[in-house]
């Protein structure tokens, strides 16, 4: 095994070999060469074809071995059957990275799977990085490096820019590049990972979000193989203030089945993937159109200082529609100051001067008036975001130029406000407004949704470095790899800082009187046994025990009942704990996700979880601030704020418990399959939180 | 008052007068004349301008009075101040309809409001119909009648087609027409209603959905004035199988404020409006782009036979994405039969033959293979809907023509399946596929969402005529216009068929023993008084009374407690009723919406309503089938199906209660402000449903 090479040779090679180079510029072995020659790529390019002296007018080489120098990257345009031999030749020569275009590997057959594993082995042993197989390759628009046979470059290359694209699917990645180019967006790097025998989406993302020119990434995946690497890449992106707009497919049942029959990615749970994206501030796009709309905003916008939006319209209806959308997107449509409203009313009595500011169609026939309105909004409205609804005016044959000039002048002196337009016009008119610094959308809803996304990206970036210290250090414990009684599980978790009510274990032959007196009444009694996770069914739970006599009688009956109903169970005795009254019942759990590792679940108890599936997730570990965001995410959150006259619950203590548990789970990953705290009672504010039950399922019991 | 004229003179005039006709073809008074002359309108056009002999080369008239004949419609391109005089002249001459373009009426000032009321009065007295003021008018593409000054016809007119547009906002209506034209959609009628001093969106809709060429309507409103007319129009649309795609704005708080400051429409509650659209099968679009996407499908699709969708793709990723969307849209992505899958596997071992059927990029280089795949899907898949994902292939310079031909041949013999494509290509290529009968979208999610809408439109059309008879006739009663005790409210509603537990009213000086014995124990006792809607607070409710003695004691204490705590209340006595155990608690209510009339509300009891606002609405009356759809709409519906081992609840009986109550409410509209049944206990299936409390607030008490 060698240390794997950096991905720089894959993404920014100084020299390129094309194995299987073809004279036909429309074939897989011909396109990359044609692109590299036409795009201005400045490095060395070596066509390899043992049957020809020249390819597309360039001298051809017989083999990798016979090249005059070691290329940084080798593009393999050879059939699946010939791939292993080529890969080995590249590795032997010390090539930095290879890109395998051919399909016919793990996605096709068992035989293909074996071949793919062989490629992986060669990569691991040599340190050479391999992209694919079954991928469309890479491009780097800055250097003109087109290591791809994607047909979308038949029409045009791509301008460099702050957008990058990382896609498991070649076809989807090509489609995104095509749409971005049509939208006038520049692209810095583009990579499609296909079957991911070595380089995967996570690692490509990790490399790309370090590139200084990259501000936003559009990503596509059906699943990720290495959850930890993926989480690290998302964390790095957030720290580098790179916005990620993700299309994750396979959320439906049929979709998930199709994923598994497609590139055989480890799909994992879509709900967990979704929670991960939310946790790291990644925007999960629901449609490709939305993915483009958000990426466009993140590419073109400078910085966003807040969420106050001023809406300027020439027609009331559009303004109302945009105000509706703004509320959904979490933007604040704050009113203009009263004095500024008076001023606008004086200028045009018909106007609505509040916000949306409606200057009516009148303004289109009186552009200086329009300028005055817009300038008043920008100067006096205190807006972070400004959107003007221009309709088809900018395409008007009669006043397009004067309108554009008026817009430019009106908005010149307000650099801190992000200025956006909706309009319906041909691309060249859109570009001219963009050149003046405007974000331009045809659909107002798409614009507002994108502005909401920008505000949330900003909030997530700002969270970096704001993490608060753990309330209590988590000790490194050892989780026994055998069934544990509730009492043992509680003792273990209590050492990790999880709060439980006081509890006494009474051996079967002991008298419970003294312990009962000490704890105080009323009490709850439970049978204590590692063999009885379901206690109620064997008569192993008694509530509301009011005095010592009741406790003694209950203990005798419980032991008798359990002896009859579960004769083989090993009994430690019974536990006694005070009854806890009041508070809001919640459920907290941790499970070990095969991809992402320990995942913490939180929900309200009872019907909320069972009927409404009102639960949310976070990968461990996380801090108390993140736990608060998690808690606020559930639909029934109002229950914790106090309803029907109930006092507000101790949400801070609940957040502390969640954070504490997440750190315990992360520190003991691999040792458990699941941990359940059900219920966790959240007491009134200031009184804390108590877990009333605990169940730990160790890893070995389910493996 | 005269009988109002039909809207035919407004929408299909044989002759048109243009008051304020201008020689300048870019002015409000010039555009309509220019349009009418260029569009091929075959009727008479009379420009009116007292200062000129001719306008745009046509002879001009001095006034309406001096016209050689009475025009069907008069377009008024005069300032607000001159409008009333013109309107009166039109009415005096017997003109059928007038369109008022000018702004400056109710949306502007009190003075404007008075002027607008004057127009309304003239319309009501004369029977002449008035559209506007503050509107952009009407067009009818079939006849070339452009009674509008909208600037979007500067570039081109509109082809006739099955789409109609009804918009309160002129600017929004123009924008929709512009987008539809760009999308290649033909439009039959277009109307913008503005301030709606006479003709409103509801009446325009009502007229338009009767036109035989109209299959789909895009509508826009901020609110409706006449709820009953609106409901009647939606009902007619459904009966005529006309799909309506509605943009209703003002759902947010800021948006609703902006509505009220805009055209001053009676906004009503957005939640009720939303429920009305759902009830009548209208699609409420969230964005303008979505509105277009749905209208496009409804315009172009023939008929939809079911919801089974076959997906053909050349790239796994796109297929998975589409399958995800299909599940969200309620479509069934059913698998290909096993034998057909085997056949496809033999044709191409790399293929995924299930559904989505993935023929891989291979199929693009082997079009006969692609045809075989598609034909197998259409012949053997049993699909109602077929979607093929073609990407940018159709725009390829090398194989665009052969691909289009292959697609046409492959799909020729399956007329019953609706065939759709996603592709990225210039408009002329899109049109060529459309000409072959395909629906064409760029975005797959937009396509699938639209197909889901078509399936739901179909389902709603099919519901017409399936209404079931009422379970019991609703007698015409009279709701007393004074406060009523719970007992009196129950008695009234029981006569209307609402089921309550048996209940006895015991006068204060009577002994409750005999009644208690007859009812059986345990019992619930409540104070009976029209003056005490909140009984618990005065000690007026006692539960779990186990025998006669308890009942007697409870009655004495209750009467004493109430005498102390509410000395002024008039006491009828107490009621006794059996305690009802088990079942699921729900809440049923009716309130009188200012626009839509009586609206029935349904939700689960307790925290579901208070925390989750998990309630739904229907306008009264409706039948049991509609009630079942209403019940299934709430998020917590699973509670009624039985959770935690509880038996399924008697949903049919609940639906019967809702339908019965809705008919009672409709028959007594105007007599009450609200009716509350809280709780309504739904017993296990077969055991019925019981309302445990009733409160009626008569209309006069809140008016």
Q: How is this structure best described in words?
A:
The structure is a homodimer of 703-residue chains. Chain A is of the alpha/beta class. The first copy, chain A, has 5 domains: 1-153, Rossmann fold (3-Layer(aba) Sandwich); 158-300, Succinyl-CoA synthetase domains (Rossmann fold, 3-Layer(aba) Sandwich), CATH 3.40.50.261; 310-447, Rossmann fold, CATH 3.40.50; 502-578, 2-Layer Sandwich (Dna Ligase, domain 1); 584-701, D-amino Acid Aminotransferase, Chain A, domain 1. Chain A is built from 23 helices and 29 strands. In chain A, the strands form 6 sheets. Chain A has a 7-stranded mixed beta sheet, sandwiched between helices. Mean pLDDT of chain A is 92; it is low at 263-267. The interface between A and B is large, with 85 and 84 residues.
Primary descriptors:
homodimer, about 700 residues, alpha/beta, Rossmann fold, 5 domains, seven-stranded mixed β-sheet
